[in-house]
């Protein structure tokens, strides 16, 4: 079961804060759903800095980032 | 191609490029006619637009600045080219409006937005240090609210026409500027005959420079508030690199153009009332942090379909009208009969800054998510 973070419609830096909280909780994989390219890039940058591997899928107007560790 | 340039703009080099271009063009715009240490100032230029439209009648700060128009439309072009234009809205617009009003009141107490604070520093105006310190204090306070769960709630998708309102407004303003409309001898548009409002670069040069900056800033998410916030919140210096590039390039360009003058006293369109430079920008920094972007960033967001950012911009223009109609804006240092006089705020201005900080703190403490 993956952890799900719905960050759609939230403005920066809230998607990053929510994703960071999930990473700190330590349960992977984490699925983060965002709506803007800005949020996608910000979450990706933060997660990679935290040592996560990030894959991105585009679903219509939305992006789903999957964060895994090790 | 599109994906590759997107990755470049998102990289450290991308943000450094955006900061460098702003740092180069702003002093050049000053060289070509814009006011001293005000090659670009989002707050001042929105205030000048409020004046040109007659929303305030401070005769020295009225001009329909093409830079603001270009920032929004440059962002719109970038968003369309990269298919990122998304009409969205409905995230506490009235709160954003109030934040915009007080953000402007704070900025005009200091006499500049964060961009101008950086440009003033790059021109040798050391009062900018107080402004930047205040900005950081405000952002640190705002970041604490964000950490403890402050939110303006989710924006949702809205019909495309909503996202097009701000670009359309800017096209309308551009038409007014280019036609130099004057409805009657005492009617709008109002253009200053003296003072900072009477100093401007040729309109098409201003517009072209701003379109380039708007395009780059949309691609790179250049934001002066975000730069400090990201450092405080998670030690991320990505956006801060852009600010560093801006200051360094602007400083060198000013040196080459002979536009540098070091000191506190008698700086152009500035006052050396230290406490109120600090507190004015504290208010602004806090309001920007709560609204999620500096004045420049709000313009770029409004250009890519974010109608909530557009509401913030309209709040700032309203705030400018209040600031000048009620005498809240900072008075520059001046020389009267050979005696240097320190400018600063009227008691009304001081009260407004304090009121603004109180309002922002109350909002920061009370706005929490309702959903589980």
Unreliable stretches of chain A, pLDDT < 50, 5 or more residues? none
Beta strands of chain A, count:
4
What fold name goes in the CATH topology slot of chain A?
Answer: Translation Initiation Factor IF3
Q: Which structural category fits the helices and strands of chain A? A: alpha+beta
The helix/strand series of chain B, from N terminus to C terminus, equals HHHHEHHHEHHHHHHHHEEH
Rg calc of chain B: 19 Å
Sequence of secondary-structure elements of chain A: EHEHEE
Uncertain residue segments of chain B: none
Radius of gyration of chain A: 11 Å
| SS elements, strand count of chain B | 4
Q: What is the count of distinct domains of chain A?
A: 1
Percent helix of chain B, as a range, is: 55-70%
Structure characterization notes:
The complex is a heterodimer of chains A (70) and B (372). Helices cover 36% and strands 33% of the residues of chain A. Chain A is α+β, with helices and mostly antiparallel strands. Chain A has a four-stranded mixed sheet with strand order 1-2-4-3, covered by helices on one side. The longest helix of chain A is centred in the middle third of the chain and has 13 residues. The mean pLDDT of chain A is 91. Chain B is mostly helical. Chain B has one domain. In chain B, the strands form two sheets. Chain B has a two-stranded antiparallel ribbon. In chain B, α4 crosses α9, α4 crosses α10 and α14 packs across α15. The model of chain B has no long low-confidence stretch (mean pLDDT 96). Chains A and B meet through α1 and α2 of A and β2 and α11 of B.
């Amino acid at each position: 079961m993956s952890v799900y973070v719905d960050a759609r419609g939230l403005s920066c830096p809230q998607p990053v804060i929510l994703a960071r909280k999930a990473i700190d909780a330590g349960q992977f994989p984490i699925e983060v759903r965002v709506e803007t390219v800005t949020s996608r890039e910000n979450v990706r940058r933060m997660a990679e800095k935290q040592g996560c591997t990030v894959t991105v899928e585009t679903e219509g107007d939305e992006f789903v980032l999957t964060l895994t560790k090790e | 191609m599109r994906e590759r340039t997107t990755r470049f703009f998102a990289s450290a080099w991308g943000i450094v490029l955006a900061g460098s271009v702003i740092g180069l063009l702003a002093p050049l715009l000053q060289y070509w006619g814009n006011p001293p240490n005000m090659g670009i100032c989002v707050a001042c230029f929105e205030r000048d637009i409020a004046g040109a439209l007659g929303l305030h009648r401070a005769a020295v700060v009225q001009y329909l600045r093409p830079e603001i128009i270009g920032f929004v439309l440059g962002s719109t072009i970038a968003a369309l080219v990269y298919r990122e234009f998304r009409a969205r809205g409905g995230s506490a617009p009235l709160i954003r409006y109030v934040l915009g009003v007080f953000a402007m009141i704070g900025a005009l107490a200091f006499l500049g937005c964060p961009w101008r604070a950086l440009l003033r520093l790059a021109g040798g105006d050391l009062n900018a240090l107080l402004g930047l310190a205040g900005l950081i204090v405000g952002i640190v306070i705002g970041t604490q609210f964000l950490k403890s769960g402050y939110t303006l709630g989710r924006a949702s998708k809205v019909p495309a026409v909503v996202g097009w309102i701000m670009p359309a407004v800017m096209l309308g303003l551009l038409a007014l500027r280019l036609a130099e409309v004057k409805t009657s001898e005492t009617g709008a548009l109002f253009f200053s005959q003296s003072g900072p409002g009477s100093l401007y670069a040729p309109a098409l040069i201003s517009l072209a420079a701003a379109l380039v900056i708007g395009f780059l800033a949309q691609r790179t998410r250049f934001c002066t508030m975000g730069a400090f916030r990201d450092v405080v919140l998670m030690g991320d210096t990505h956006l801060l690199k852009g600010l560093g590039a801006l200051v360094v390039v602007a400083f060198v360009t000013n040196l080459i153009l002979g536009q540098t003058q070091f000191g506190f006293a008698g700086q152009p369109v500035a006052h050396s009332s230290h406490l109120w430079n600090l507190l004015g920008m504290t208010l602004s920094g806090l309001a920007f942090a709560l609204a999620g972007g500096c004045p420049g960033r709000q313009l770029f967001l409004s250009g890519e379909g974010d109608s909530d950012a557009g509401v913030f911009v309209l709040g700032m223009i309203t705030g400018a009208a209040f600031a000048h109609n009620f005498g809240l804006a900072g008075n520059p240092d001046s020389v009267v009969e050979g005696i240097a006089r320190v400018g600063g705020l009227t008691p009304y201005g001081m009260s407004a800054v304090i009121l603004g900080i109180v309002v922002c703190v109350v909002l920061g403490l009370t706005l929490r998510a309702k959903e589980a």
